[in-house]
Amino acid sequence: MGVSVSTVYGVASFYSFLSARPKGRHVIRICKNTPCGLKEGETIAGAVREHLGIAPGETSRDGRFSLEWTNCIGACDQAPAMLVDDDVHGNLTPRKIVEILRTYE
Fold it and tell me: Alpha-carbon distance 80 to 43, whole Å?
């Protein structure tokens, strides 16, 4: 393509949905923008951490899940929200998190 390695890496590292590192089979992205933050986004991240034993930026030992913070996922009306792969999940509670993640196991 005539593009330098540094240019490719620059693009891959700029966009949060691209990665230069391997990810889990399912990628969980928790929205960190204002609406989700105001509606307990950190509590949701904590519930995911507790259930899976991983923090944002980590992948579970079995390679099943990766957890990431991300900017707006376009679900502000459903805050707090997260994406699992391409599926939007909104109006989250810690209990709903466990139920949702079980469907991906």
Answer: 9
